[in-house]
Design brief:
This protein has about 375 residues and is mostly helical. Helices cover about 60% and strands about 0% of the residues. The chain contains 18 helices and no strands. Helix 11 runs antiparallel to helix 12.
C-alpha cells in the first residue's frame, strides 16, 4: 500500500500565484462537484462518509475545517454584563474548575449579551477545558479580530494554538485516509503509520493511531505511542484519557487513576476522566463505589455515551439486571454509540468475557 503524501496540502498553507486558475475537486475521489462553505474540498458523498465515521471513543475531536491562522484580540465588556448573574456564576464555576457548569452559565450570558467579547472569550476557554473542541473553535471565530487587554488576548491565543497543535491534522490527506479505509481498522492502522512517516509530529494522527491499536488489543504499542505524545505535551488531555483506559485494560489501577486525576485537576467535571475513573473502579476496585461514582457522573450529563455505558456496567456488577438492560438499550439507541463498546458490553453481559479478572500484582 503506497500513499503519496509529499504533494498533499499542508495545514500551514501553500500559496498559489494569483494569476493561475486552480480547479477544485474532491480531495478523496476528485469529483468536481464539491460542497461549498468548507475549508476541506469534499463532495457530498465523501463528506457524509467522514461525518458518519465513528471517531475515537467518546469525544469527537476531528472537524471538517482546517484551522487557518487568525489574529485575535478582544474588546472590553460593558460594565453591565460584569454584574449579570449568569456571568458571575460562570466566573465562579471556572475558578473552581467546574467547566460543565461554567459552559452552561457563560452560554446563558452569551444569549443575552451576544456581542460581548469578554463573555464569548470566557465561553471559548470553558469549552476548551470541557473538551468541546469544535464548539470552542466556533466561538473563537466570533471574537477573531477584536481588541482588549493583553492578558486575556495572550490566554486565548495560547489555547487556540493548542487546539491547532493537538486536535487537527497537519495535512488534509489524513481525512482522505479516514474515508478510504474506514471499514478496515488493520489497513487504516497501516495507512496512518505510513502517513506519520511524512508527518511525525502530527499529534492528532498519532492519537488516532494509538486509539486504533488499543481497539485491536495492541495495548503496549498504543501505550508507547500516546505515552510519547503526553511526555512532550503534558496538557494533552485526550492522551491522558487514552492512557487511563489502556492501563485499566492492562490491570494497572494506580496508573489508570493517576491519568484520570491529571485531567480532573484542570476540570473537576470532566465526564471522560470521571468515566474512566469509574471504569477502573468497576474493573479493579469496589463495585459499590463504582456504582456511586457512575451515578454521580451520569447525573452531570445524561447524554454522555461513556456515562451511559458505565451505568450499564455498574448495574451489571451490582446484580441489577433490569436496570442494566434498560441502560444498555439506551446506549445502543444513542447518537454516539460505537461498535467496539457494544461488542465489549455484550461479551461482558453474556459471560463470554471475564472483564474484572485481569488485575496487576501492584493493585
Amino acid at each position: 500500500m503506497e500513499q503519496n503524501y509529499e504533494n498533499q496540502d499542508f495545514n500551514s498553507g501553500i500559496h498559489v500565484d494569483d494569476k493561475l486558475e486552480v480547479k477544485k475537486g474532491c480531495q478523496c475521489c476528485s469529483n468536481p462537484d464539491i460542497e461549498e462553505g468548507y475549508n476541506v474540498d469534499l463532495c457530498s458523498d465523501c463528506r457524509k462518509k467522514l461525518s458518519k465515521r465513528p471517531f475515537p471513543l467518546w469525544i469527537k475531536i476531528f472537524s471538517l475545517i482546517i484551522l487557518a491562522a487568525t489574529v485575535f484580540s478582544i474588546v472590553r465588556l460593558p460594565s453591565v454584563v460584569s454584574s449579570a448573574v449568569a456571568f458571575n456564576r460562570g466566573e465562579k464555576a471556572a475558578k473552581e474548575k467546574n467547566y460543565i457548569t461554567a459552559v452552561k452559565e457563560y452560554t446563558k450570558a452569551a444569549e443575552k449579551y451576544s456581542d460581548s467579547t469578554l463573555v464569548l472569550a470566557r465561553l471559548f476557554l470553558a469549552k476548551y477545558y470541557n473538551l468541546q473542541i469544535d464548539e470552542a473553535y466556533d466561538t473563537f471565530a466570533l471574537i477573531s479580530g477584536r481588541e482588549s487587554d493583553s492578558d486575556l488576548v495572550e490566554t486565548v491565543n495560547s489555547i487556540y494554538t493548542k487546539i491547532k497543535t493537538y486536535y487537527y491534522p497537519q495535512s488534509n490527506s489524513f481525512y482522505t485516509l479516514l474515508i478510504e479505509y474506514s471499514d478496515n481498522t488493520e489497513i487504516l492502522v497501516e495507512a496512518i503509520t505510513e502517513y506519520l512517516d511524512y508527518y511525525p509530529g502530527d499529534v492528532c494522527a498519532t492519537y488516532y493511531l494509538a486509539d486504533k491499536k488499543f481497539e485491536l488489543g495492541m495495548y503496549d504499542e498504543a501505550e508507547q505511542l500516546i505515552g510519547g505524545v503526553v511526555a512532550q505535551y503534558d496538557d494533552f488531555y485526550f492522551g491522558h484519557l487514552l492512557l487511563a483506559e489502556i492501563y485499566c485494560e492492562k490491570g494497572d489501577y494506580n496508573k489508570s487513576v493517576q491519568h484520570c486525576l491529571k485531567v480532573l485537576a484542570d476540570n473537576q467535571q470532566n465526564t471522560a476522566a470521571l468515566g474512566y475513573y469509574v471504569r477502573a473502579e468497576l474493573k479493579l476496585g469496589d463495585v459499590k463505589k463504582g456504582l456511586e461514582l457512575a451515578t454521580k457522573t451520569y447525573n452531570l450529563d445524561k447524554t454522555n455515551p461513556l456515562s451511559i455505558a458505565n451505568m450499564a456496567l455498574a448495574y451489571h456488577y451490582n446484580n441489577m439486571t433490569k436496570e442494566r438492560d434498560e441502560m444498555f438499550e439506551s446506549f445502543k439507541n444513542g447518537t454516539y454509540k460505537d461498535a467496539y463498546t457494544i461488542n465489549l458490553l455484550t461479551s461482558i453481559f453474556n459471560g463470554e468475557l471475564e472483564w474484572r479478572k485481569q488485575v496487576s500484582e501492584e493493585n
